[in-house]
Amino acid sequence: MAIETIGETVGSTVRAGPTKDELFHVLRNQRRRFALHHLKQAEGPVDVGDLATQIAAWENGIEPEAVTSRQRRRVYNALQQTHIDELSRTGLVEVERREVTLTDRAKDLDIYLEIVPRQDVPWSEYYLALGSVGLATMVVTWLDVGPFAFLSDISAGMFLGVTLFVSALANYYTQYESRLGDPAKPPELRGEH
To answer: 0.85 exceeded by the pTM?
Structure first.
């Protein structure tokens, strides 16, 4: 059985990264996802206390300034005892003193970190349907069947090309909006308030 890993090339050798199972284990916890989201936004070292404050704010649906010491301490202890160690062990973050920094390896996680909203379109099925309709339209236009006899082949092709382009833009926009680290709140919390 092959184990897939995410690695980085150093010189002519590939340094093995965490396996998919390790990544999914790390990412299954909401606090770790929140930590990665905040670190991606910061684009630099973040103090563990500041990280705990932001995560506590997201967990409690409040602004960071409103986080109580008890809420912050609960998250801080969990980060120190479990979560930062898990992220560090898999090479996603580096810790120096009380500062946590996202590593370059974390950039490879974007495909795993995209959160698909419940109301999202199943894009693979959409493109399959679009391709089927497009092929059928091109065939009936080429064969001059029914009302499609009045369309030129180029008109049908242009219409389908524009439809594909608009669909791809919509797909890109929805996926961009669901990535960790992009907008202010983690994807799991967007649209709740």
So the answer is: no
